[in-house]
Protein: Hyaluronan and proteoglycan link protein 2
Amino acid sequence: MIGQLLLLTLSGAGRATAFMMNCAVLLLLTSSCFTWSSVIYTSGREAATKLKYLLDPPVYAEVVGRRGDNITLPCILRTKPIHYKVKWTKLEPERVGPENIIMMSNAHAFKPYGHLGRRASLREAHAMDASLQISHLNLEDGGTYRCELVNGIEDESVAITLRIEGVVFPYQSPNGRYRFTFHEAKQTCAEQDGTIASYSQLYQAWTEGLDWCNAGWLQDATVHYPIIHPRAVCGGGTLPGIRSYGPKDKNRDRFDTFCFTSQTSGAVFYIPGSFSFEQAGHACRRQGAELALIGQLYSAWRFQKYDQCDGGWLKDGSVRFPISNPRERCGGLPEPGVRSFGFPNKMLHLYGAYCYR
Structure:
């Protein structure tokens, strides 16, 4: 009886062992199948993205410059087909009409196109170099550029992002909150030495600390506002982030605006005094300058670390002052920034003048 029980136990153990071995084999095969499938998928993906003629990624995928800089967008050939052209374009998804061609070239010559082409040339550092040089960057030059090798059979392209380094500033009408249509917002930013900000520029500004509770237009005609410290009057208790109103009617809807500016070629300086708005303008002109624009003051604050703990008139009739070294007696806020007194009565003789030349 004991022998039979032992035999049954051993037989059960054998079956259990056999079952476990079968499971192990099945798991091994399954694992092998997943690994094999993954290899096939990865190899297929790599094969699909590998270019024959152009180097990809093109040395670096993002180039950063400031207004007025000269930059190079890289595009390097691995090898050359017998007959080919290289075409540089700026990608503008919302553009209506023909694509924005900047440069066409072959092995012997190149031809520039459009307003960007007038400031563009090919670097040609060596025989395989098709890199594009752009001089005297404008605020509007930021975006995505495509270098395309065209030979009629195996056309290839690489994309490079040009990011203009600058600062975003919110702007409200002297007449109060939410007064601009989209077209008025664009014009207002241009009048303040800027351009209307893109979503990516606002996003970067938010990561750097921009917290603003009024919604404003962006370049793509959407309306957003950035929140670092959620509060009841700014979207409630949701997480920090970019609040969105989505796309709005360009001609009917009215909001504030977010403008973008970069470094300037001139300088901002302060004249102390107790001026009215008109007197402040005269004070600047006596120094061979003009009252500064908002964008010029923000540029000085951002790029020259301008710090002046005195309210001063600006050209739009507002009174502001830039703080790079926060302290209690200069606005009381812990973060650097450009502080604002809004748009006081222009007859008040209380403020100095911020000038630009």
